[in-house]
Amino acid sequence: MLRIKYEDAVKTMERKLIAHGVGAERARLVAETAASISLDGIYSHGINRFKRLILSIDSGICDPLATPSCTAAFGGFERWDGNHGIGIVNAMACTDRAITLARTHGVACVSLRNTNHWFRGGTYGWRIAEAGMIGIVFTNTKSNMVYHGTLDRVLGTTPLVIALPRSEGPVVADVSLGEYSYGKLQLADMAGKQMPKPAGYDSNDQISTDPMAVMKEARLLPLGEYKGSAINLLLDLIASSTSLGNSACDVRDISGDENAISQTFLAINSRAVNDPKEEEAIANRLLAHLLYARPAIGFPAPRYPGQNVLKTRAENTEQGIPVENSVWQAILELPDAPHSTSGSWL
What we know:
Number of helices: 11
Mean pLDDT: 94
Distance between the termini: 19 Å
Shape: globular
Number of strands: 13
Order of helices and strands: EHHHEEHEHEEEEEHEEHHEHHEH
């Protein structure tokens, strides 16, 4: 593992983006976001994904010049089109629009279609929480997961983010609705490890813990069996139907990285009517109740979602962001000019 200073990572990715047709201001936003995700310790969805973004641009799947646009609006609800632009750019625009609408309407929902991979969903939940609002954001993906009890790809991993503002640091859950996310599978494969629990089906329709065997078949197991499958299905239905965009089955066999997908961004401005101190007192009582719970045998002390992010961010700011040597070398070797490519997406 290498340790790379945050600003060095940003400057390197920014330079590569500009060389591949991304404007300077937009390149800075994307590079800072990717580096910040790894800075927070979410390594699978930060710098590790950067090469895949460049491949998407070079192959024409992602338009580096596209700007998201509002196509319909009513009160606190708006429908947006990402116009196949950079996923981070689109998601940031819709997150900020939801925050703005919630300041006027109390509750806001922005649904987005024709966008690309947003890297880490938690980024947008943190952004809403840091604006003093409750955030709920989710995205569909191409179908790469079975519905409980089936052998066929029906669902996507459908990341779901729920964020609560708090002066001591937001509480942010960022979960994939698969037994494992693709990022976790990729990290295990890079390390030559098996998954600790069954992850999906292999080419022989057998349950497997081999991350590469599962990724090749794109038949991951859903989190929570039937219950998780049901929640996953509804989130996909909401994101795709409210945006008038694609569902998991519509983008199932589109080549390349996640593209032409649908996302939803909700912001709830409860503090417009509630005293923030009262809200936090209630939240803090429950969090304390959790933190004082006795851990079961073989488990570490309990922690709430997002608890370690600020600590990890501080450590990685001081010591540098841990990056696999092969990942960073692949970024450095990216050409400093656009080119057609048939490189691997994994």
